[in-house]
Amino acid sequence: MIELVELTKKFKQIxxxxxxxxxxxxxxxxxxxxPNGAGxxxxxxxLSSLMEPTGGDVRYLNKSMLKNPAPLRxxxxxxxxxxxxxxxxxxxxxxxxxxxxxxLRGTELNKKIDExxxxxxxxxxxxxxxxxxxxxxxxxxxxxxxxxxxxxxxxMDEPTVGIDPQSRNYILETVKRLNSEKQMTVLYTSHYMxxxxxxxxxxxxxxxxxxxxSGTQEQIKSILSTEKTILVQANRLTDxxxxxxxxxxxxxxxxxxxxxxxxxxxxxxxxxSWLIKLAEESGLELSxxxxxxxxxxxxxxxxxxxxxxx
Length: 310
Fold this sequence. Notes:
- This protein is of the alpha/beta class.
- Helices cover 35% and strands 28% of the residues.
- It folds into 2 domains: 2-216, P-loop containing nucleotide triphosphate hydrolases (Rossmann fold, 3-Layer(aba) Sandwich); 225-304, 2-Layer Sandwich (Alpha-Beta Plaits), CATH 3.30.70.
């Protein structure tokens, strides 16, 4: 349905996106994952024709959209990272305004407003001014605006940033429902690993403008097929304990939390007894030492040497 071909964007000396190629099939939920500053928003701005690439191509149904983006714009709904609403208007007035921009009129527009308000769970708040809404309600209305014209492709740029867990779960379930009931194709960008794991059929991982991994969750996790992830939890951590782990030649990667350490080692390496002895020598109490099932977070740590939100 959509294909990015060696897409590149430079801002003077900054290379924001570097020769990124990816595709989206009709009916998929595709995740674009990466930390802040990875190039996700720049990539989708080029995909949605809001920004002209320095190089490469955006293709819709195998036709380039660079010179004539109208066919792609017509079937695309965009949920931007920053909330794009008129806060002095009511929820219904916002939907009516944006619906008219989509050239919806009369009975058709009224029907779509009712339908969208039901889908985003704001029917009973339709007459309320948006500046009285919580952050989560504004996010949901932002999604509603993008859904008014029944887009084939819904692009969502970090739609759950800065909202409460209840609203976040509501948005995730809404995305799932749109995909299953309307066969809507979704490109979902996030730096929340668990959201992408929950929603997406396939995943692309960006870091510093580079595409560093792509595939299904199973394919990406198989990158760690020769390694294992060990989670060490303690009553406290000391520099002595952490530095000893960092300098152990069998340890490939390490990430340090407040009272836990994640360690990636080759699959054949057994360092359990060494960790227990090290903790005793450092005067620490270990509450648990467990082998974790590989996650996308572990893959990102393996590929970049740092956590996703670092």
